[in-house]
């Protein structure tokens, strides 16, 4: 080898070693970039629906407190209802409820839900005893019979078209609030509007956009309910980073933003358990986790890039739920009213054969998206760690959980047996037999609570006073597997392909921009 070639070879080797060292220190794999987000205008089956004249607002529950302290940044305004009290309000204010007049909640029997008033009126015909109510941010028209004074009366009422019973807040609670250090009393709702608002939760001080509403708490205690009212896109900036790590690939984050937007509009103002509340949506896992302004530029950019885009099936939203990991098996959406979401393997090769319980014995599967893979980033490796898990559960623990979560007791447990499974292999019915009787536990969440598991995708065997359980995934399995979405994005999948795989043949609809 001549000298110039030797020098060149040595230099190249040194450069290669140095580059490799740098690569090892990188947090993200080299197979994708997270520094830039390009707006997506060419989407498969993309259509525009002029449902909203402008981007809607959403009211999010934050906390119930005896005293509320808020710190405003920028220009602040204090209001009582629609009346401006102070145009240049102080930056720090404390609020305390002085008195309250409780609101009115009425109970109704639901006979049908329609997408427009004309359909509801046509279905009602000449029956003047039926009432039509418009509910939700995305309007639905409920055909109702009532009202009834108590929930029990509505439950007992019989009607051939009866679908459900709803408790609806008809008249909000009213009250008087003391504002310190101003020393003034204002009628509710008291509204504090600033460029940004700081509020201290039990763990840390968080930053919020929009405005804070204070209304009387509807429980027995003398408290204020704090509500953050803001635009949907601003809300999503505080949802996406808590539902999916900002370290995930960009296309997965876009998919998460669209799913979160769809889910929010689908349940806001109409979720059964919230119809008697003065807000549209909660800030915890019962709807979506929301913790105010995140401050992640990557999150702000993916929300902006997908602005106004939702998933729809005709004139209804997709059931755009999501969860951490499916364990390789995706559940059907039929039980939640979505026929497009099918039970199948989370296979990287596309739609394939159904999941087999034998697959639970595999610790890894190269063809399954949410399985551990060698080239995953640290955050995806963490998510993939729940692909398979094992747990030893004592029968005493099952007995305690049964009493705690279900309010039932069978005495000393003698038998725990799987009675039924869904298409995806998840346990749908679980028999628990004890000295004082037997109970059949039905439903994913109930079964997981009683056994203390991440997922209902499991097999079990008993040995003595213990259950030895092997399972897969974390969550209910309906909709988007977040780890799987991250891996698909890492493999080059675009957000529309990710969403189509998990939610079926949905339409991508832009509601505003």
Question: What features would you describe in this structure?
Answer:
The protein has 513 residues and is of the alpha+beta class. It contains twelve helices and 30 strands. The strands form eight sheets. A six-stranded antiparallel sheet has the order 2-17-16-13-4-5. A six-stranded antiparallel sheet has the order 12-11-6-3-14-15, with no helix packed on it. The protein has a four-stranded mixed sheet with strand order 1-30-18-19. Helix 6 packs across helix 12 (495-503). The longest helix is centred in the first third of the chain and has 23 residues, at 3-25.
Summarize the structure.
The protein is α+β, with helices and mostly antiparallel strands and 513 residues long.
Layout: helices, strands, pairs:
Elements: H1 3-25, E1 46-48, E2 57-65, E3 67-73, E4 77-80, E5 83-86, E6 92-101, E7 104-114, H2 117-124, E8 130-135, E9 140-148, H3 151-156, E10 164-171, E11 174-180, E12 184-187, E13 190-193, E14 196-200, E15 205-208, E16 211-216, E17 224-231, H4 232-237, H5 240-243, H6 250-267, H7 297-305, E18 309-313, E19 316-317, E20 322-323, E21 329-330, E22 344-345, H8 378-384, E23 389-394, H9 395-406, E24 413-421, E25 427-434, E26 437-442, H10 444-451, E27 458-463, E28 466-471, E29 480-481, H11 482-490, H12 495-503, E30 507-510
Parallel strand pairs: 1-30, 20-29
Antiparallel strand pairs: 2-17, 3-6, 3-14, 4-5, 4-13, 6-11, 7-9, 7-10, 8-9, 11-12, 13-16, 14-15, 16-17, 18-19, 18-30, 21-22, 23-28, 24-25, 25-26, 27-28
Helix pairs in contact: 6-7, 6-11, 6-12, 9-10
